[in-house]
Amino acid sequence: MDTHHHPIPSSSVHYNNQPFLDPHSRVSLFLLLSEYSHAVRITSSHAIHLFCLTNPVPEQPLPLSAPIPPNLREISSLASWTVSSSKPGCSIPQLRSPNTSLFWQSDGPQPHYLNIHFFKLVRIVGLRLYLDFEADESYTPTRIQFLAGSGANDLQEWSEMRLEQPRGWCWVDFSSAPTMPVLRAHLVQVKILENHQNGKDTHLRGLQIFARDNERVGMRKRESAKELAMRGKGTCGGGGTMRSGGIGGKGLGKSSWDVEPVIR
């Protein structure tokens, strides 16, 4: 059997800054893999690694699958993002992309975590994740913890999600935030503890953090505390189910970092 590895044609690797494989390159890659299937067995992890390397972030953002709720503005771009580990080509730029066909894939031991560090104290009223069980299967998170603080040394858990086959945007429960329904923090950590079928690595296809949009408050009735809290009551799109609520549904109490600053 000929085990000589033939190089993949350059047309199937270089895409002239196009966000996805053009049809000709897709056909070329498919034929090449089919021709040498007797010598090379491609596993699902190899296929995902190939996807990460051959699908850079699109230059033109694609429309979101769900609109931003009224009176909110996304503040994710105001933070510095870091992850515990990632596959090449499947890291923070892919997670931050509006295109939910791209994703962050971890590449290390559990737990996997994402740190979102704001340079000033922010008031967070909403946080949602995009998950897709149908596409990710064993890479799909089933247990996620959410922590917050002024830095890495005083992180405190404020919510936890347990999911079953989620698909779509999943809102985090804010009922256990120290000052429900507003979370004030410099650092938010998303910690993925378990995956479906005990999968090792994880996929996260989107994460957005929201604050009140004060400029739009006058355009419609200001949301009440109850309305703000209900938005994060464990809703999950696509028919997925979840159980949420931090610390058994009990409030955390006000922490030293979750107070209004005093100017002297």
TrEMBL record:
Residues 51-236 form the DOC domain. Residues 231-264 are annotated as: Disordered. The keyword Kinase does not apply. Keywords: Cell cycle, Cell division, Mitosis, Ubl conjugation pathway. It holds the Pfam family ANAPC10. Gene3D superfamilies: Galactose-binding domain-like (2.60.120.260). GO terms for biological process: anaphase-promoting complex-dependent catabolic process; cell division; protein K11-linked ubiquitination. GO terms for cellular component: anaphase-promoting complex. Residues 234-252 have a biased composition (Gly residues). The keyword Cell division applies. Belongs to the APC10 family. PANTHER family: ANAPHASE-PROMOTING COMPLEX 10, ANAPHASE-PROMOTING COMPLEX SUBUNIT 10. This is APC10-domain-containing protein. It comes from Delitschia confertaspora ATCC 74209. The lineage of its organism: Eukaryota, Fungi, Dikarya, Ascomycota, Pezizomycotina.
